[in-house]
Amino acid sequence: MQFELDGRSAYAYTGGKPFNPALPTVVMVHGAQHDHSVWILQSRWLAHHGFSVLALDLPGHGRSAGPALPDIPAMADWVLRATQALGASRATLIGHSMGSLIALEAAGKAPQQVQGIGLIGTAVPMKVSEVLLNAARDDEERAFDMINRWSHARWIHRPGTPGPGFSVHVQNLRLMQRQPHGVLLNDFSACNAYAGGLERARSLSCPVLFVLGARDAMTPPRAARTLIEAVSQATVIEVPQCGHALMTEAPDATRQAIAAWLLGPSMQQASATA
Pairing state of beta strands 208-213 and 52-57? Predict the structure, then answer.
């Protein structure tokens, strides 16, 4: 679904169903150098099981016009305004990696708009190594190679093909290559600079879901420990033998974790008291 915000074209995938703001709304926010397509399997299931879905392309990513926004607070503001512009006064935000920081910041900024947040492959702080930052600036293809190696559990899907004609590694590489030059450095710099995560977490009263890959080398589960302790209503699910790319390496487990939480008592209570 193409729409306009701030005088620029933007895109939200709705899971194969027309967006209906009368239904419970789930807003899905991708990570660095990605777009809405990382959520295809989870978003389609939700859209066909009683939810309205907005899997957004952030500015400068996918089908949304640029430029890319410079920091996490600006991205969070954009997500909140996009959600309202499309008619959803209140939504659940689910973010992966950089998107998890955006969801966290948005919930802290506008608690009246956010029913709950799901943080997939998250860490606070989300520091990026100098080696990877330098590669993002000077040699994007080298950075893509490092990201691909570190995003996937090495002994899963060797050589990266869970079925005929499909490769999680090639799929992720082509997705990164489709984004405009410079977006990767922008996104990694935003993650690296974001310092408000714990303060935002401590202010939350909404339910928070954590879905973590047990073999995640980018945001290992231990890096989320302080964040988990900072929120008052945490549900934590660790997916065994899975890396950072949870939505493609463990699509069913990720979808089941999200669905069980959305339909569970904490979110049902949050919905009833909204």
Answer: unpaired
